[in-house]
Design goal:
Elements: H1 3-8, H2 16-29, H3 31-38, E1 48-52, H4 58-66, E2 71-76, H5 79-88, H6 90-94, E3 98-102, E4 115-121, H7 130-140, E5 141-151, H8 158-166, H9 175-184, E6 189-194, E7 201-206
Parallel strand pairs: 1-2, 1-4, 2-3, 4-5
Antiparallel strand pairs: 5-7, 6-7
Helix pairs in contact: 7-9
């Protein structure tokens, strides 16, 4: 496997030296897209929020800033990501507003009906079955809770499709495919938005 392929494959489950390099680039590299995604959240005051596939922890930190009264959890499949996200959010962890843990979105070990908000940035490409995983998310959300997904690829753009061929286990999804899976998983209201000049998409669902 070439160095480039090994590096970009770290987006799935970062580990080792290349994983550290990938995580170092994630927070800044995805910041504009993530902030565009955040702009789609409704006016809510969650008590508990969770960022699924939290990577290097920047979006956990943004949730903590956006909702100063909330407790925020970060979940990631990669132990290295958990470590980096803990480092990024160390102060909030120490004062008890944040926790970061290793977890698998296809089998979330979180309390049922515990969260008002769940987010997933640049991660569902690697989830093993959208409907199954979305049902897991629905299970940890309270009735009326929101789930927001933000992706850099709309499932049809050339760059996204190129990386799908390079990275094992990666699958780009259109907004329509994501909406259908969310509805099948039990979400009652689903809406999506496409960036006017980029292939970014945000999908917002309500339990």
């Amino acid at each position: 496997m070439g160095l480039f392929k090994r590096f970009v494959s770290q987006t799935r489950k970062p580990d080792g030296f290349l994983g550290k390099m990938m995580l170092s680039s994630m927070n800044s590299g995805h910041a504009k897209m993530a902030d565009w995604g955040f702009s789609h959240l409704p006016s809510i005051s969650p008590e508990n929020a969770v960022d699924l596939g939290c990577g290097a922890g920047r979006n956990v930190g943004e949730l903590l800033k956006r909702y100063p009264g909330a407790h925020v959890a970060g979940i990631d499949y990669s132990d290295l990501s958990v470590e980096k996200s803990k480092d990024y959010n160390r102060t909030m962890i120490e004062i008890g507003r944040c926790e970061v843990m290793q977890g698998d979105v296809s089998d979330l070990k979180l309390p049922a009906d515990a969260f008002d908000l769940a987010t997933a940035f640049e991660t569902i490409y690697f989830w093993p079955g959208l409907e199954k995983c979305f049902a897991q998310v629905a299970g940890v959300l309270r009735p009326g809770g929101y789930f927001m997904i933000c992706n850099e690829s709309d499932g049809t753009d050339a760059t996204g499709l190129k990386f799908e061929k390079i990275i094992d286990g990666m699958k780009n999804h259109t907004a329509e495919e994501i909406e259908a899976a969310l509805k099948a998983a039990g979400f009652s209201f689903v809406t999506s938005d496409h960036h006017p000049s980029k292939p970014w998409i945000t999908v917002l669902a309500k339990k």
